[in-house]
Design goal:
Elements: H1 4-36, H2 44-55, E1 63-64, E2 67-68, H3 78-92, H4 94-97, H5 111-125, H6 138-141, E3 148-150, E4 167-169, H7 172-176, E5 183-184, E6 187-188, H8 204-212, H9 214-217, H10 230-240
Antiparallel strand pairs: 1-2, 3-4, 5-6
Length: 243
């Protein structure tokens, strides 16, 4: 057994030693914070977006950096998973994107406020979180294998020459927007019809007109008009035309 003096010395030395270790770790952590959080990218828009995130109590339903409510999706990597177009549409009108499927209220965000929120999500997605959330993020679960589809099969002519095979790469917008409602290759949403084999029933002209304005083709449709760039529109039409 320790004597009183030995026990006192053990306590004092032990407390002092671990206090020094704790202070050292604290100083080291504070030094690493600017680098780990990419503090140089914390623009005024990011700060405004964070204030909006707090003002509307988004953490009441969502988690971010693992903190918050577990009712709705984790948002730390939402920018990488969904991209700015999807986030902007979701902030404008969640019900339009997911008719009857979402309970997220429609907030009165202005265009500037939505841009600030997107800037905040983009910044926090680049924070070094030591692998959190665990890979693969949601977007990667929707990657189809293979990621390229052939428009014609390899064939060999009577002379022995093989025909060229044209491939169409899967556009990124499919994983950020379309897959939220539609399934491809068994992965994705079930709100809209699966897109597998759509080229057998719809040609490129119809697909382009549909993507440009679904309500014009089918009044009352629940599919929203997507804010697609010309490049995204062309890539989607080309891809779906051979799917």
């Amino acid at each position: 057994m320790l004597t009183k003096s030995q026990a006192r010395a053990f306590f004092v030395i032990g407390t002092g030693l671990f206090t020094i270790i704790f202070l050292g770790l604290t100083v080291d952590t504070l030094k690493q914070i600017p680098h780990l959080t990419k503090q140089q990218n914390m623009s005024p828009e990011v700060i405004k977006g964070k204030h909006l995130f707090d003002q509307y109590n988004c953490m009441g339903c969502h988690t971010i950096l693992g903190e918050g409510g577990y009712y709705a999706p984790e948002l730390t990597k939402v920018y990488d998973r969904r991209g700015p177009v999807f986030i902007d549409m979701m902030l404008q009108d969640p019900e339009a994107l997911f008719p009857g499927e979402r309970r997220m209220p429609k907030y009165p965000f202005s265009k500037e406020e939505r841009d600030n929120m997107i800037a905040f999500f983009e910044w926090i997605g680049k924070v070094d979180t030591s692998g959190f959330p665990k890979d693969p993020p949601l977007g990667k679960q929707f990657i189809i294998n293979p990621t390229k589809f052939q428009t014609e099969q390899n064939t060999t002519t009577s002379t022995g020459a093989a025909t060229a095979v044209k491939t169409v790469a899967k556009p990124a917008v499919l994983d950020t927007l379309c897959i939220a409602c539609h399934a491809v290759g068994g992965k994705g949403g079930a709100i809209g019809p699966a897109l597998d084999g759509i080229s057998k029933t719809r040609d490129a002209k119809w697909l382009r007109e549909w993507l440009l304005d679904p309500a014009k083709i089918k009044p009352g449709t629940t599919m929203p008009k997507l804010p697609l760039s010309e490049n995204d529109l062309n890539a989607l039409v080309e891809y779906l035309s051979v799917l």
